[in-house]
Amino acid sequence: MPPENNDAFAQLQEQLQSIWTSVSDNDSFSHTSLIVPSLSVDQEELSKVQGASFYEERLLFALIRLRNPNARLIYVTSQPVHPDVVDYYLQLLVGVPAAHAKRRLQMLCLYDDSPRALTEKVLERPRVLKRLREWIAEHSPAYLTCYNTTMLERRLALELGIPLNGVDPVLLPLGTKSGSRQIFAAAKVPHPAGFEDLHTEDDIVEALCRLAEQRPTIRRAVVKINEGFSGEGNGVFNYPERKTDPVAVRQSLQALEWSSNQENIKSFLRKYRQMGGIVEEMIDAEEVRSPSVQMRIHPDGTPALVSSHEQVLGGKTGQVYLGCRFPAREDYRLMIQDHALRIGQVLSRRGVIGRFGIDFLLTRSAEQDWQVHALEINLRMGGTTPPFHALEFLTSGTLNAETGIFCAPTGQEKFYSATDNLKSPAYRGLLPEDLFDIIIRNKIQYQPDSGTGVLFYMIGALSQYGKLGMTCIGNSPAEADELFRRTVALLDRETDTGEHAHGELEPLFDNPVYME
Q: Would 337 be classed as within a structural domain?
């Protein structure tokens, strides 16, 4: 990228601090928020996620910004969002008539369902760029929010002349699998034994052999592509009897296990050569948990806690994100929050701003209390971002950073169970209006008076894929779990065809350990 572009981008980003301060200090500050929910990730990896094109709907919770009566919001998508879905969110805005909010909302569809990043589609349409500039000029200042940031989003910010509310893409290597391990080391946060900055099959074989020398009792390791996400791009390696023999290890590498049925060793090694990756031990213990912590670094460089979650992982290798509970368990919540803050401080010193998440592995045995292992940093929004947005959207509450507990304005503590992977063959063919009819007739929608209920998202994926997301909010963990179970049972009953298959989600709403 030419130096002048770097200078121009830096000047744009300087505007973000004043906009952020004004929005934070004045709930009627006049501005425009442009949302481009592009999944600007490797499209081959993204194709492994069913209904990925509808993940653009996950940021509709950003409509919360329309609570400000002087805010404008522009939301861009590849495919049309059903108008009933937009109305569904707007009618939940507390204290703001839906009609008033709708007048300040501009939905812009590109009518392009090709498997490419949304930002790329915007950039190749000069008339769309011109239209966006005109809308922004009518109600400036403005800023750009995206699901993740790449050079595409950087270029879009430059084209529109507005700052990007996210990490500068030149810093993205800090959030790769290799970069994460380096940041953990700098923050002095425990992480699995392993090796980073690998590229070839020979690198992988050598690293696996060296790892076995360090850990003689090791049984399994994980081979990760640097830019994989949601567990895709992670291969589980089972050690042969001769753990340090390069010939035996290379042969066993051919039997690497992935969550996706679409993956094979040839394509995996090709991606590995392109992106690089790591090898690290797969830690086995009597008890294992997979919590995460979500952070934000403000434009002034201040790291701040957003939330913590118990993640539910599944798939063939147990590496795929299926859902979460909020917050993380009390017996280690403060510990992982402290580690996350230390990681945030290192990232802040490196110049990172915006949202990011950190995945942890917690292990416990009869002889040892909980041990922390940081696994990876995601310098973007993630699967736990939409449900927490839903909680903010619906309750107007805040998180107590000292306890990690979220409270409504009344002081009532709030909890939820959530998934973006609720799916069944029987749900296919349900239109948004069918879903709304079901939830209204059965009274499971969110109720402002009790502050409990269900909010659905990714509704557009329902008809074609039989898949959607939901956040079940309760006043206790037990209430949130029960609401989750009841909602799944209701949808199954309403679409009774005998085709339901929710086995992989069982840990999300039937986990007595969490309820201890």
A: yes
